[in-house]
Amino acid sequence: MSTPPRVLITNDDGIDSPGLHILARGARDAGFDVVVAAPHVNASGVGASVLSVSRENRTAVHPRTIPGLDGIPAFAVEAHPAFIVHAARRGWLDPLPDLVLSGINLGSNVGHAVIHSGTVGAILTGALHGLSGLAVSLDTGVEEPAAPHWESVLHVLPEVLDLLTSTPAGTLLSLNVPDRPVAGLGPLREAALSMFGAVQARVDHTPGVDDGPGTLLTTISDPDGEFIPGSDLELLAQGHPTLSRLTMVESVPGILPQRSVTSSS
């Protein structure tokens, strides 16, 4: 038998997140060689930041034991998820990971707002190293539920992992699963990104008093307006798990007119 792919499991909710542990279990049960490395604290919303808590260029790595995942190496790292992925491919892990799985995030990662997601930032960083990646999120809404339907993600995951491993290296996929029982899920659908994210944010400024600092108060709410047909938000609202293929940042030629090159005599 060929050697199974080695998969780095990370997230932005932190090493103690149940979603991280469940994703690792799903990857293990799918036959992958799993290693877990995640931020030591919650690092949501950091995008592809490679910030770490360093002391003389040293970032602390704490070995951990995850219940139910005996024999799987796990680490809490004092760094953001993109840093963890970068470090894993730049000399830390041996053997090197072949794939990056990030999640399971509490809350969907949809629309163009995925650029702010640490869950997505991890797989974007993996693509810089030629790795395929899957960001996995559970569409729980603004309020965190008491009992998220993690089993619904595990129900969809094998099909998506088969897709991921059959695509060229560097492929990036984002999976969002409605937070409802397996029996209430619709078929997996490919989705376009919405123009906005899963929530709307409003920021209000309160000036400081006597030259003291002011404050910015952020409040969030569910998105308003109609969903774009075929978008991730529309399909999730209909009960469909959604899959979107993401691309790396790329340059687009044509901003300057073409100039002919003449030789001098």
Short summary of the structure?
Helices cover 22% and strands 26% of the residues. By secondary structure, it is an alpha/beta fold. The chain has a 9-stranded mixed beta sheet with strand order 5-6-2-1-7-8-9-13-10, sandwiched between helices. The protein has a two-stranded antiparallel sheet with strand order 3-4. It has a two-stranded antiparallel sheet with strand order 11-12.
Overview of the molecule:
There is one protein chain. The protein has 265 residues and is of the alpha/beta class. It has a single domain (6-193, 228-246), classed as 3-Layer(aba) Sandwich (Stationary-phase Survival Protein Sure Homolog, Chain: A). Helices cover 22% and strands 26% of the residues. The protein has five helices and 13 strands. It has a nine-stranded mixed sheet, with helices on both faces. Helix 4 (150-165) links the parallel strand 8 (132-139) and strand 9 (172-178). Helix 1 (18-29) packs across helix 4 and helix 2 runs parallel beside helix 3. The longest helix has 16 residues, at 150-165. The N and C termini lie far apart (65 Å). The model has no long low-confidence stretch (mean pLDDT 93).
